[in-house]
Design brief:
By secondary structure, the chain is mainly β. Helices cover 9% and strands 42% of the residues. It folds into two domains: 179 residues, no CATH class; 160 residues, no CATH class. The strands form seven sheets. Strands 5-6-10-9-4-3-13-1-15-14 form a ten-stranded antiparallel β-sheet. Strands 17-18-23-16-28-24 form a six-stranded antiparallel β-sheet, with helices on one face. A three-stranded mixed β-sheet has the order 2-12-11, with no helix packed on it. Strand 14 and strand 15 form a beta hairpin.
């Protein structure tokens, strides 16, 4: 079940940035939308009976704008135009036009993949940061279907306000303030048109409920929204496909998925007798994100892990198998090599890393076997290349 979460008050979500009241980092911005792990503590209260104390399983997590699912801008697209409109309350709203990047031959360097992605249109003005640019479900479906050379996008800041809160550290025993311990945090105030969305497994909240959400423990309202995220199936007989990540993904070898050989760029996926062998031919991703958290049971921070950001896109060539099998293995599944609190768990034909566990841990499994992530990291969707993109690949292959 997917639940929508409406903020009653300002929200604050910690990122991986270190924060000290007295030091260089005295201003800390909120991470928005929050990382998947944020929801585990908020919804643990609703785990009852034999489920109480178990780890909450999370799949999709994202946002709703005007009651529509919205997703981070695919990072193999570029901004070619921007405009500003006036909303009903005379507030300016930003909108963008996106174009697909083109596949080109890799440059004469140590670039690790066979192809790279480049802009098709020369634009003098530098792109706005992709963190704030989102597309709605309809535009994302067009992108995944290989339709429309241009996509409509919008600024997520159209739907919320940033506000600063000033505080000062106090002594826990006396309650007195400490000299030089003034700090600021950037709070997020979502408007009525913006809600968070999270899909939870094995948990059903029948009635409208309130939860404590984020680092400040602010109140938010939870309502059941949909049975699941419905994306029409994509059909293709192509030997190529792309994998779009709607949430950050933590991989065992940096930006390489652990099941991909770093030398050959080839790897196999096997799950429930379905198998594909793939070659990673191109990728587009942003700057890594540091993901950690705080373990309330152990009273100390979790291990920090680097993740490829939401919106990252990987291009694959199918060496063995077909597009239909790839859809069943990857589409709307959480593909991530690292999971939380794996110690003590056993999987058939798997070996769990026995190093000290504190937060995230890495699965040491054979490259021909897959274990899906159950914490919402690496939520992936399969897309097909359009005729122009496939023609470019064939042309570049002949030149090589």
């Amino acid at each position: 079940m997917i639940y929508k979460i409406r903020a009653v008050d300002q929200l604050f979500f910690r990122s991986g940035t270190p924060f000290e009241a007295k030091g260089e980092t005295h201003l800390l911005k909120s991470q928005f939308p929050p990382y998947p792990g944020t929801y585990s503590g908020s919804f643990a209260y609703f785990m009852e009976g034999d489920k109480k104390g178990r780890k909450l399983k999370i799949s999709y997590n994202g946002i709703l704008c005007d009651e529509t699912f919205c997703f981070p801008k695919p990072l193999d697209t570029a901004v070619i135009d921007s405009s500003t409109t006036q909303s009903g309350n005379a507030r300016e709203e930003k909108h963008y036009k996106l174009e697909r990047m083109k596949l080109t031959k890799k440059p004469p360097s140590n670039f690790p993949l066979s192809y790279c992605l480049a802009r098709q249109t020369d634009v003098a003005k530098k792109d706005k940061s992709s963190d704030d640019i989102y597309v709605n479900q309809q535009s994302l479906q067009q992108y995944l279907n290989g339709e429309a050379s241009e996509l409509n996008a919008f600024s997520l800041s159209n739907y919320f306000e940033n506000e600063r809160k000033i505080g000062i550290r106090t002594k826990s025993k006396t309650g007195k303030t400490e000299e030089g311990m003034l700090y600021q945090i950037g709070m997020v105030q979502p408007g009525q048109r913006l809600q968070l969305a999270v899909e939870l497994k094995d948990l059903e909240i029948v009635e409208h409920q309130s939860i404590s959400l984020g680092a400040e423990g602010r109140v938010a309202e939870v309502t059941a929204f949909a049975e699941g995220l419905v994306m029409p199936a994509i059909e293709s007989d192509s030997e190529y496909f792309k994998l779009y990540f709607a949430t950050p993904a933590i991989f065992g070898n940096g930006w390489y998925p652990q099941w991909i050989d770093q030398e050959t760029k080839v790897g196999s996926f096997l799950f429930k007798k379905r198998k594909v062998t793939l070659e990673l031919i191109a990728a587009s991703m942003g700057r890594y994100e540091a993901i950690g958290g705080f373990d309330t049971k152990k009273g100390k921070p979790k291990e920090m892990k680097y993740a490829v950001p939401a919106g990252s896109v990987y291009y694959f060539k199918i060496l063995d198998g077909d597009f239909k099998t790839a859809m069943k293995l990857f589409n709307q599944k959480c593909i991530s090599d690292c999971r939380e609190n794996m110690s003590g768990l056993k999987f058939e034909n798997h070996e769990i890393d026995k190093q000290q566990k504190n937060g995230f841990s890495k699965m040491n499994f054979s490259r021909d076997r897959l274990v899906y992530c159950d914490r919402g990291f690496g939520y992936a969707m399969v897309g097909k290349l359009n005729e122009k993109e496939e023609a470019q690949l064939e042309c570049l292959k002949r030149k090589n």
